[in-house]
Amino acid sequence: MAEFQESMPATPPPVSAEETVAAPAAALFALLADPARHPEIDGWTNVAAPVDPAPIAGVGDAFRMDLAHGVRVECVVHRFERDRVIAWEPGRLGEPPSGQLWTWELEPLSEESTRVRLTYDGTRIAPDQEKRLARARAVTPERLAGSIRRLGAAS
Questions:
Q1: Sheet of 47-50, strand order
Q2: Which domains occur in the chain, in start order?
Q3: In this predicted model, what pLDDT tens digit does every residue of 18-68 receive, in sequence order?
Q4: What is the DSSP letter of 31?
Q5: 96 closest CA partner among 74, 113, 112, 78
Q6: What is the pLDDT of residues 95-154, one digit of tens each?
Q7: Which H/E stretch holds residue 101?
Q8: Backbone dihedral region of 94: left (phi > 0), alpha (psi from -120 to 50 degrees) or beta?
Q9: For every residue of 69-82, which 3-state class applies, written as one string?
């Protein structure tokens, strides 16, 4: 008798979380566009230190970060709409892009309140990147919401 085995999808679907933060969108965006502040908002405590602490100015900018487990990554900015959207793709220095996209969307609700959506999209991770795929499958809305709460606390 053959045993039925459910297989995992090759790549996990995008995952999002959304919360309202008691801070103006401009202040939140300034924090997100400042790599020196990223360790404060990382809900995984994976980001150890920025290598390039200069603020992000637009699409195509790149900034490097040292991760807690000793790896240096370079993040390339894919979207940049001041006070509204910022997205970047990390990748190990000297290697092809990772296929992971982190997108922060800010929707002002009032002068002092912003709806924040954080989306992790790992759908472009190469099928042969099993370790990266396993980490991508571990991203949950709850963990993303933790990063949003940390953003609010840091603002």
A1: 15-21, 113-121, 101-110, 85-92, 72-81, 62-67, 47-50
A2: 15-154 (3.30.530.20)
A3: 999 999 999 999 999 999 999 889 877 788 888 977 899 999 999 999 988
A4: H
A5: 74
A6: 888 999 999 999 999 999 999 999 999 999 999 999 989 999 999 999 999 999 999 999
A7: strand 101-110
A8: left
A9: CCCEEEEEEEEEEC
Which residue has 């099993």 as its token pair?
130
Place of tokens 């309202």: 20
Q: How many Cα atoms are found within 13 Å in the side-chain-facing hemisphere of 8?
A: 11
Beta bridge partners of 41: none
Q: Residue 28 has which token pair?
A: 């939140």
64 Cβ neighbours under 8 A, 6+ residues apart: 50, 51, 52, 72, 73, 74, 75, 93
Identity of the amino acid at 80: F
